[in-house]
Amino acid sequence: MIGIASGKGGVGKTTVAINIAYALGEIGRKTLAIDVDIALPNLDLYTGLEKPMITLLDLLNNTSDYKHAIYRMTDNLDLLPCGSSLHAMQEMDINNLKEVVEEVSNAYEYVILDIAAGLSKFTIVPITLSQEVCLVVNPEPASIQDAQKVIAVTKFAGSHLCGVVVNRCRKKQHEKDAEARLGVPVLGCIREDKEIRRSIEEKTPIVVWKPGSAASKSFNSIVRKICGEYTSQNQNFRGKLIGRGL
Ligand SMILES: Nc1ncnc2c1ncn2[C@@H]1O[C@H](COP(=O)(O)OP(=O)(O)O)[C@@H](O)[C@H]1O
Ligand SMILES: [Mg+2]
Question: Which domain holds residue 116?
């Protein structure tokens, strides 16, 4: 279970989450991407999954079976979208997320959580559930400063920080600065790239739309690192929950 998180909003979490999820699927890893950005979900939009009927909100509200909320995207990638009903959002209890995620995760090798920005309970609950947390930052000082708080929360939650993705990077120095200021290894840098914006318009993640592009190569390299890291942790999500007596 890998949570994709950031302090500041709009830094590229959904872009990174969906490309990592598709790239994992492409190398044959059974993967589920879950949109846990409850207030501002986007995963459905970024993948062309138009107006899904049954979503995470239904599962959090106990009004549907999880099998109806999971959508097959590719042979090895499923998606659990969030849904955008304000009424359902008001009704739901984020504390049910642990039970839902535990139930839906069983059939997968990797579960990618697209987590909201900020530091509310909507962020902290999924960070706590994540075995690994991958931070996304932009080179801007505000993004790095806000990420420092997420690092503190992640450590407090007992989750492991697998690294940081520096998105919209424009020079090598940005990678060095982020690593020095955050004290977390850089998993990879994604260049500022207008093709990424176009891939969103195309509703097709860039790793699928332009597999040979520099951005796709960077995402694939990040995924190889994540796979190595995850395997070496030798611990599954259930193990983490049991380990905490949950
Ligand atoms: N490397 C990049 N180069 C250019 N535009 C990008 C890049 N990464 C993300 N974007 C754009 O930035 C915007 C915010 O990205 P998004 O993934 O939705 O951020 P978040 O989920 O953190 O709010 C989107 O319009 C996306 O197209
Ligand atoms: Mg997002």
Answer: 2-243
